[in-house]
Amino acid sequence: MIKAGIIGATGYAGAELVRILLGHKEVEIKWYGSRSYIGEKYASVYRNMFQLVDDSCLDDNIEELARQVDVIFTATPQGFLAGMLTEEILANTKVVDLSADYRIKDVKVYEKWYQIEHKSPQFIGEAVYGLCEVNRGKVKKARLVANPGCYTTCSILTAYPLVKEGLIDLNTLIVDAKSGTSGAGRGAKTANLFCEVNENMKAYGVTTHRHTPEIEEQLSYAAGEEVTINFTPHLVPMNRGILATEYASLKKIRQADGSLQYPDYEQVKAVYDNYYKDEYFVRVLDKGVCPETKWVEGSNFVDIGFQIDARTGRIVMMGAIDNLVKGAAGQAVQNMNLLFGFPENEGLTLVPLFP
Amino acid sequence: MIKAGIIGATGYAGAELVRILLGHKEVEIKWYGSRSYIGEKYASVYRNMFQLVDDSCLDDNIEELARQVDVIFTATPQGFLAGMLTEEILANTKVVDLSADYRIKDVKVYEKWYQIEHKSPQFIGEAVYGLCEVNRGKVKKARLVANPGCYTTCSILTAYPLVKEGLIDLNTLIVDAKSGTSGAGRGAKTANLFCEVNENMKAYGVTTHRHTPEIEEQLSYAAGEEVTINFTPHLVPMNRGILATEYASLKKIRQADGSLQYPDYEQVKAVYDNYYKDEYFVRVLDKGVCPETKWVEGSNFVDIGFQIDARTGRIVMMGAIDNLVKGAAGQAVQNMNLLFGFPENEGLTLVPLFP
Amino acid sequence: MIKAGIIGATGYAGAELVRILLGHKEVEIKWYGSRSYIGEKYASVYRNMFQLVDDSCLDDNIEELARQVDVIFTATPQGFLAGMLTEEILANTKVVDLSADYRIKDVKVYEKWYQIEHKSPQFIGEAVYGLCEVNRGKVKKARLVANPGCYTTCSILTAYPLVKEGLIDLNTLIVDAKSGTSGAGRGAKTANLFCEVNENMKAYGVTTHRHTPEIEEQLSYAAGEEVTINFTPHLVPMNRGILATEYASLKKIRQADGSLQYPDYEQVKAVYDNYYKDEYFVRVLDKGVCPETKWVEGSNFVDIGFQIDARTGRIVMMGAIDNLVKGAAGQAVQNMNLLFGFPENEGLTLVPLFP
Amino acid sequence: MIKAGIIGATGYAGAELVRILLGHKEVEIKWYGSRSYIGEKYASVYRNMFQLVDDSCLDDNIEELARQVDVIFTATPQGFLAGMLTEEILANTKVVDLSADYRIKDVKVYEKWYQIEHKSPQFIGEAVYGLCEVNRGKVKKARLVANPGCYTTCSILTAYPLVKEGLIDLNTLIVDAKSGTSGAGRGAKTANLFCEVNENMKAYGVTTHRHTPEIEEQLSYAAGEEVTINFTPHLVPMNRGILATEYASLKKIRQADGSLQYPDYEQVKAVYDNYYKDEYFVRVLDKGVCPETKWVEGSNFVDIGFQIDARTGRIVMMGAIDNLVKGAAGQAVQNMNLLFGFPENEGLTLVPLFP
Questions:
Q1: Which listed residue, of B338, C112, D45, D283, carries a Cα 20 to 30 Å from A247's Cα?
Q2: What is the pLDDT of residues A63-74, one digit of tens each?
Q3: If pLDDT is split at 50, 70 and 90, which confidence band does C276 have?
Q4: Does D48 touch chain C (CB under 8 A)?
Q5: Does pTM surpass 0.95?
Q6: Cβ neighbours, 10 Å, residue B252
């Protein structure tokens, strides 16, 4: 049984961490950090936790916390952890950071897209990008895990095998993503009021969303060359769920008879299956089935489907996740499981809630 | 490890049974019965179950099923089980019936409200009404459990302690209930289309809803006298959740000083606490807190709050459940746990999903 | 053509006034008052108005405004108008106040329920309660109209004929009301975020909601005796719409043969029809039809239905409105039409939007 | 005052025609055709029309109807009108067809994508594709107008000026579209139940949706060359609204100094403004503003915005409409206005409903 602390426990991602960890056999939450609610019962902030969590909220004294627990989750605003992290903290505990502070290796790229000065670039190098299906080995040995963003997790895993295997023309990759509103957090903003979101659909952050360089960086590693994409997020009137619809031109590949041909359905499917057949959390759907966010709601699954368009030579790849689970808290727990040698799906065998 | 079969596995309540039983350590589902989908993969009907359930749907041969499993859940239309049940079946297995067939002791009342002839009234007598918090002892010894309706579970538990203790005038009891749309089932009806329900609110079945006599019967047992109520269900644009708002005039009670006075907040609260303090699934909320359906979504909890109105002498009682869990499949599993001597909350420690 | 000014033009009710007045042949909006957005294009705050409204927002200098326009609408927080109103203003212009400042005749009741000191009680006497169907004659001659609340409009009109005619026992009247979220306004509050409201249902303000004394006062006038009720509002995950479900015991009435009997369906229907047959905006539905909020969305209609329960002797009355139209801006325009002698439904023949 | 008849008056598009035509000064609806509801009061099928429409539904005898009215709207399944249309009908009346029967000039393309044999290809030639902003002149002289599809209207108008002016590389055009659920019609299908759509997001008809060839054909006319695109529709949990997000690589254009350069924001904006500045229904939004479906709900507006991505050389174009108005009934009325010489926006100055 390990001890965990959460900084930012009263945001939506923090609350989802609590929900998941309450069902985890090997973890006990010792610290519900929340600057805004210090001294208040956690269950008075999230009443779904009534009679399940008796603790009150504590401050965000991460140095003290590091001495008390085996792992710290930081579900905090950009720049928070970068401003607090010390060698001493990392010497005392493991850190899984749900913010973007250590996701991007090039500090200039981070500072440009986030418009924040990075206060502790010295830790960027050792931080492991916690996309478990890709970096499993490195995560196991890490002290500091940069938990991927919600859009990025979905966008990357949906395209990863084809990018890695060189099946698509990287210059043509476009990611059109749609997210439920919990991704916007629990801050009280007019734009996120029920009446503004309900019965409405819009794109936002077009060409400027901060998850763009994160997707590009990871796909570049996979491709072995620099990838530049268009990424367009949209706000959908639902609480949870991300759907990524991704477009790219297929590349001809060498066939058994030596000729160069576009890959067909079976060939693409085989590539996906090859990469994901042993991945508990990635479900490559059957032919003709498009993923739906509701089928993964509340779970850590990524559902992936695709369709080839012979008319245009493009492939349409689609991926669905629950943004708060595989896109945030669930993946953070998956990383924790890797860090401590627990079964990777411990606490994460949550069955999707339908309807 | 026991074996379970589900007849009606492809309705919403049946699918929720699957979701819950997949997380139950002591049960294995051996039979996914669904007359409409015989031979089809269960996971092609409920794609959230992809890679979690590999079975295909079977027919509803309950006699054969009874020989194979330890417990049968029937999540079937009214009259189905009544038309099939035999002594032989009950000799071979336990039955938890999620339909209304054995809930009402007076067969004439059943036939009047449901407009169906009851085909096996001989089993009504032995059937135990499976409201666990009230009939726990009887359920443990039963062969046939009549699992309560969704509205009824919420409506009864919200008022039960005050009815039992004689704190309210039973002639004044009014239940105004609001339900998510999954209560209407998965049948393809125009009235339940997204565009008809979304952005809409209505009452239905006013003065005629079939859960009325069920609530009345159970509250009559509690009161020791016949109770007649108004029950008005409403359809709410959400998937899950029932909220019951109940009104009744308080009765004066004998106070410590011998005088007759209306009970105050603390006295009413003490009654609720006394009845429910040891009930894992019933959460009596703190003073001033009104239940919200979202706080119990996906869980087997019943959240209860109340407010006394000194101006009118009435009490407003409020209860919230997830209609598919405590209002159907969750309570069915709770009954199964009682039947087989498992911990009552085994498989049911699901933390509510928020947001 | 008259000139109108709006103070509070950037709240939801203010914006709905703009929407309606843009389609009104006899009115020109000259002043979009909004303290928060002074100098900003109105259409940048409500982008649905792009290319329809070119004006920018002005301050709330009501004295100046009174010199420029024929009618002022105040869609402002409680206490605002009471703190500003002067005899000079009323000498210069008509005022339709969408706040509660002049709705309640007894200033002590106002101050108790609103917890505000009333700054200009001298105008309470002359203010006319603008429930057009009830006070049409008085409104026509008024300088100051107190536009009714959303819940109150729906609650009163649904019960009014039966209260007035003495068909129901006033001591038993209970109003269980359900509202869309736009009634909570456009202020940025966590409780009104999409993720908090969506897939959720709750009661709030139980026994304490401020619309209670307003309903009671108006029904008391109708009854000729003091009426005390229970009023319970609920928040529903939809943008617009109020549904009021009202319960009361029927009273026996003298029948044609001289006997005292409970009124039957036809007798109650005749009373409703008698009161509302010439009312353009009140639609008494056919037998067995329950009102639905979607059927009045975007329109100024009130849909009313009822059901008698012979088992309990109660009647269940149901009324539905669009809270922003008949419950706010639409009724305000209806009052304006009365004040200026326009056809009462001018600008208000909006057909409900379905789906 | 002209007389209109509607075949298919009880579908969502038919009902929207009724809503709009009720507010049109020059039209009287004489025929509410609905095969499924013959003899039933129209207002009992669409209760929002209670006391507004007194007529009952009639059959779909289009020959008889053609003798009685000046214009027929057919809001019917694919193939219906093609199977009924005769020269005699067109000699007697104008026809605005909301189905796809006469939208596509090449009957083989129609038959391939719709999998229906076309029964009256002889009328395809004379049918005018009723995208008013593009074909205004031809519509005015037509007898038979093929009213565009919902997705197509939005997709085409969003890209039209840039396609026409050669600013984008047509081989790179991708349309990712998102639609509210009313586009799926009022048929009772499980997939369109509230609980299946709510809290869910999915793509469907990927690479195979029937609106694809319609978009391609119209853009090909604009481009003067054959255009092949990817079009991906998605289902969004809202009643109304389509958002099209369109991607294309910009082409270098000859600049004032003679050089070839990519167009900048102002140049692209000028093209849009040039095409749409006199179009009442097309609103080109200000710099940086992305369209939202809620801002056009209930109205005939098309809101268009765009963003240039210098990193990838692509432009992201976005358009929003109400699928039932500009995407169906509103555009049909706009076409009718052109056919009869009414002001083009008569009956269509509906202000968008927000929230």
A1: D283
A2: 999 999 999 999
A3: very high
A4: yes
A5: yes
A6: 12
